[in-house]
Amino acid sequence: MTHGNKILIAMAAGSGTRMGSVTPKQFLDLGGKPVLRRTIETFVSAIPDIKVITVLPKEHISFWKEYCLSSEFTCPQLLVSGGITRFHSVRNALERVPDGAIVAIHDGVRPLVSTGLIREMFSKMEGGRIHALIPVVPSVDTLKVLDTVQSDLGEKILKDSGEGIDRSRVFGAQTPQMFLSEDIKDAYSQAFDTSFTDDASVVSKKGIPLSFCAGERYNFKLTSPEDLSLARMITSSLSR
To answer: Which of 198, 207, 223, 235 could disulfide-link 31, Cβ–Cβ 3.0 to 4.6 Å?
Structure first.
C-alpha cells in the first residue's frame, strides 16, 4: 500500500502539574505564541499539506477554538479529547486516522523540533520499508543505578547499587515518532500496559520492528519552569 498522506498527532492533553502553573504548559507563552501553536506551525512549515489532529483536555477544547479564532491561527485541525492516560489519548486520535498514511506522533510541548528533522524523517518513511522511526540522542551524563534504602534514623536515602551501565549503549527517545498508519493502529488495539512509556514501546510489544535516527539536543520536552526559561532563551536568540 502506498502511504502518501502525512498526519501529525499533536499530543497536548496533559495538565502539566510539574510546571507549577495554573495554565497547562501547552498554552503558556513562548516568544509571543502558545507553545502548542509553535509546535504545530513547525510541522506545517516543514510539510505544508500535513493533516493535523490535536489532542486536548476536554475542558480546554473550547478555549483552544476561541484562541485560534481570535488570533487568526487558521491551520485546519481536527480536535480530539484526551483519555485517562497518554495511551488512551493516542488511541482516541488514531480512531480518526485513515489507512495509507504516515503518522507522526509528537509531544505538543516539544516546540523546538526543527523542520529539517521532520522532513528527514518523513522522507525515510515514504519508501514503506521502515515501519517505525524513532529519533534518539546519546546519553551525555554518567549514569548511576541507585537503590532507595532507610537509614538508621528512618530517613530514605539513596545508595549505590554497584550496578554499572555502559553509557555508549544508552539513548534518550524523543518525538516525533513516525509509523505507518496500519501498524500504529494495530499496535494500539492492544490492552493498556503500564510498561508503555511511549508509542515506540507500544509498537515494539506488538512485534513491529523499530528503526532509529539521530534526534536533536534542543528537541526537549518542556516539563519544568527551567525548561520553559531555556526554551524562551533559545527562541529569543533564533529570532534575532
So the answer is: 235
